[in-house]
Write a structure and sequence with these properties.
- This protein has 278 residues and is α/β, with parallel strands linked by helices.
- It has one domain: Rossmann fold (3-Layer(aba) Sandwich), CATH 3.40.50.150.
- The chain has nine helices and ten strands.
- The strands form two sheets. Strands 3-2-1-4-5-10-7 form a seven-stranded mixed beta sheet, sandwiched between helices. It has a three-stranded antiparallel beta sheet with strand order 6-9-8, with no helix packed on it.
- α3 links the parallel β2 and β3.
- α4 crosses α6 and α5 crosses α7.
- It is globular, with a radius of gyration of 18 Å.
């Protein structure tokens, strides 16, 4: 990790690792559609950037099958140990994980594809990182990334309808914390420019969110746990006091507020992009 990289606003605790897996359940259908549209298919060798606890790598492994292979790389050794354990528990022999920085790692340059989710937003120079990633992919292989739009000035990036709600208040506090940490909160919107700067063709793109409402929507837990992960930084930046957030009851209060107001609540937009390496 470069000293100039943005702070990983969510931390690297066991609770955050559990939150990542929870988040992955919401994002799996979106990312799977993106991978299939990009041409990820059985038998491919795929490089996964920023693997964390392995959710994207395991998804890719399910697509490429036993004749394919997935190599995941990440800087968080504790997260990778969990990813390895998950792969072993599932009996997957087509996944391995590397503890290293993609910008300096010694990896082959003949992968059939490279993928990543919510990772370019954490590089000091996302275009340079993408250029290095693309070097690992053979000519004709897809380079596929899934990133968020988190604009502190727009409540629509993670909002409810009607808009005045605890969901929107907490979502915007999270977005502001990411911004204060130096994260590239507009990365979803910047993907076309980033691909161009990395020397790749104009990517095919899509944009999706997940949404819901009512008493059984699992998103209340996701938002509450995301706030729990970013709360220390929110307090550090003077955006909120942890003691005022009521983290122990936040999930219930989010649900109760949404049910009482018959709210539709949604995640930030997730922008998918893929381009074939020339």
């Amino acid at each position: 990790m470069s000293e100039s990289d943005p702070t990983y606003a969510l931390g690297r605790s066991d609770a955050e690792h559990r939150r990542l897996t929870e988040q992955a359940e919401h994002l799996r259908p979106l990312t799977e559609r993106l991978f299939l549209a990009a041409g990820i298919r059985p038998g491919m060798r795929v490089l996964d950037i920023g693997s964390g606890v392995g959710d994207v790598a395991l998804l890719a492994a399910s697509i490429v099958g036993p004749q394919g292979q997935v190599v995941g790389i990440d800087l968080d050794l504790n997260a990778l140990e969990k990813a390895k354990a998950r792969a072993e528990f599932l009996g997957l022999s087509n996944v391995r994980f590397v503890h290293d920085d993609i910008r300096t790692a010694k990896l082959p340059d003949d992968f059939d594809a490279a993928v990543g989710r919510l990772v370019l937003m954490y590089f000091a120079d996302p275009a340079e990182a993408l250029r290095i990633v693309a070097k690992r992919v053979r000519s004709g292989g897809p380079v596929v990334f899934h990133e968020m739009i988190m604009d502190p000035g727009l409540t629509s990036v993670a909002a409810s309808y009607p808009n005045e709600s605890l969901w929107t208040t907490i979502a915007m506090l999270i977005v502001k914390t990411f911004g204060a940490a130096g994260v590239h909160v507009q990365m979803g919107r910047q993907l076309l420019q980033i691909y161009s700067a990395a020397g790749l063709p104009v990517p095919s793109m899509s944009i999706e969110s997940f949404a819901g409402g009512g008493p059984d929507f699992a998103g209340y837990s996701w938002l509450a746990n995301t706030m729990r992960s970013v709360a220390p930084l929110a307090e550090k930046f003077g955006l909120a006091k942890i003691s005022d957030l009521g983290l122990d009851t936040l999930e219930v209060r989010l649900k109760d507020d949404a049910v009482a107001k018959t709210l539709l609540v949604s995640s930030p937009p997730f922008v998918g992009a893929f381009a074939v390496k020339p």
